[in-house]
Amino acid sequence: MITQIKRILMIVGVLIIFSGETCIAMVQNIEADGYYIIGDGPDESHSVAKDRARLDAKRAAIEKAGVYVESITVVKDGQLTKDEINTISAQIMSIESEKITPEIVGETVRYHCHILAKINSSSIDQSILNNRRKLYESEQKIKQQTEEIELLKKELILLKKGYNSLGEKDKREIDYKIKNNENRFTAVDWNDKGTDYVKKKEYQRAIECYQKAIELNPNLTIAWINISSTYLDLAEIQDYKENIDKAKECAMKATNIGPENALSWVMLAYTYEYCHDRDAVDKRIFSYKKAVTLDPKYTAVWNNLGNAYRLKMSDCKSDITYENYRQKFIDCYQKVIDLKPRERDVWRNLGKAYEGDFIKPISIKNYIKMIDCYRNAIALGFEYKENISYQYSIEGNHKKQIEEIHKNYIAANTSAPDACAWNIIAIEFYLDGDYNTAINGFKNALEKSGGNETIKENLNMVRKESQARY
Description:
Helices cover about 65% and strands about 10% of the residues. The chain is mainly alpha-helical. Among the domains are: about 1-130, Thiol Ester Dehydrase, Chain A; about 160-295, Serine Threonine Protein Phosphatase 5, Tetratricopeptide repeat. Helix 2 crosses helix 3 (about 80-90) and helix 10 (about 260-275) packs antiparallel against helix 11. The two termini are about 55 Å apart. The relative contact order is 0.07.
């Protein structure tokens, strides 16, 4: 079950396709520096000042690594964004050493952090392909942490401005606010340390770091998101139910604290991917819908929302309800295509959306759209022969496709409904221009289905076209 869930979650996220020779495998050294000055006013913590310098150096190292990654990466059909490059760089960069040195500058102390890091370009492909679901998620986490640091930095500048000219009472008030700023910064620092442990797959130590971040700042949404994600990782290797429950609890906390944060709702939806409750799919849909409302360009979530609708579609007994969920399934994948029109896997998934589950007859319109989607996927490099059942129709060989459907579904006496198979055979005759045989095929399918409305529509459509044609 876990493997199936992972497959669902990993379908779309980054949607960047690399060429076979993405980069030259080598290790590159990165050196970077960060600074922070204290002693120019209020009484600040030297320990926090060192951490500020260290995170500043780490940010500079990631940016330098990003320049290197961009220079060696060949991308098909588009360019990596700066955020995507920095995310990849952060994932594959390891800090080998850091040195923090106090420097006297006038009447102040400047803490200087020098970082030596390494980036292994041979792991770039693997980091992307193994974490398609998580790359956008990681990008958002880095972005949110950076925004929090910048917010604290601007707040601190304003607090320190004109400090020396204030009276003692006002200074005490500013000192209190600066201490609060330092606590919130330290929380971000613990959050960052937790992320480093996740990269090393040291999940328990990562959780401890996130817990320290939350103790210092219970309203740090990104820490709640990260600890929820790490409990899901931990559930893969131990105490499944206990860690899933903890992940869900933390994700709910994230949505309460940050209801306008799309990633909070995504994380809550992820926890429901692991649940077997009767209403888990409905809760997943609710959470994903909240996320795409907040971030309509979040392609990974449109994809996962479509998958959730597909599960609802598969459970439907009513034809009307089935088609309703199928259309929602299709709409979600179409949204991904609108955002990422050159992604082969998405075209394939949209084709699957039109195809359905072979338990309900397909309309001619949807069948044609399905074939067009598969053709687009193939044009973009999708290997279809082992993954798509309609390869002959895609190639325009309708007679051969009819033989395959008859052999695989009717002659083989499979559990698939005969009406569905005969309906597809009739559609193939129609696409091949044999209207009379198509009409007879639809009649046969209609009889076997007990009067299915979709087959009736197919039959009436072909009859009208046949009359107009002849």
